[in-house]
Design goal:
185 residues, alpha+beta, Nucleoside Triphosphate Pyrophosphohydrolase, four-stranded mixed β-sheet, three-stranded antiparallel β-sheet, hydrolase, NUDIX_hydrolase_dom, NUDIX_hydrolase-like_dom_sf
């Protein structure tokens, strides 16, 4: 069975600092007609599950304009131009900028955030052996962050309460839960 859609034309709608928007006209598989696809192109991002020696997670609380609310999240950030070649370095940068730590990183997953319309691919790292940085890199000028430390039960309760509503953070906490149960190593 053929699933591939052939792009007939592309119209660029928006070119921003973080993403681009386009509308494609596509031929549907097996000649079943023509349709349009609204697409968002993103350079990608990194995120980090930082676990302390006391087996707690470090999260940042910040306001998210898209949902007009605050959210508790794992440290994360977009890949800057040229960082695709070394996303681990970008993850280390975000860890230091957002929470003031360095660590040993292990790649857990690559995942897409919303494949129905967006190509943003995120790399999720596990951070172990956290070490406080004496003079960490400054936070981005447009960020206002507060640091929180939660145990697993508190993190799960925060998900249930809607304080953690971000998919990457929920995924990271679910990995942590599997780690605790011995399902993953």
């Amino acid at each position: 069975m053929n699933f591939e859609e052939k792009t007939l034309s592309r119209r660029e709608i928006f070119q921003g600092r973080v993403f681009q928007v386009a509308v494609d006209e596509v031929e549907l598989p097996d000649g079943k007609g023509v349709s349009t696809r609204e697409l968002v192109f993103h350079n990608g991002a990194v995120c980090v599950l930082p676990l302390t020696e006391e087996n707690k997670i470090l999260l940042v609380k910040q306001f998210r304009k898209a949902i007009e609310a605050t959210s508790l999240e794992i440290p994360a950030g977009k890949l800057e131009v040229g960082e695709n070649a070394d996303p681990k370095a970008a993850a280390l940068r975000e860890l230091e900028e957002e929470i003031g730590y360095r660590a040993d990183l292990e790649l857990l997953y690559d995942f897409y955030t919303a494949i129905g319309f967006c190509n943003e691919k995120v790399k999720l790292y596990l951070a172990r052996n956290l070490e406080k940085v004496a003079n960490p890199r400054p936070q981005d000028e447009d960020e206002t962050l507060a640091l929180y430390e939660l145990d697993l039960d508190q993190a799960l309760a925060a998900i249930e309460a809607g304080e953690i509503c971000d998919a990457k953070t929920i995924m990271a906490i679910q990995y942590w839960q599997l780690l605790e149960s011995g399902t993953v190593s």
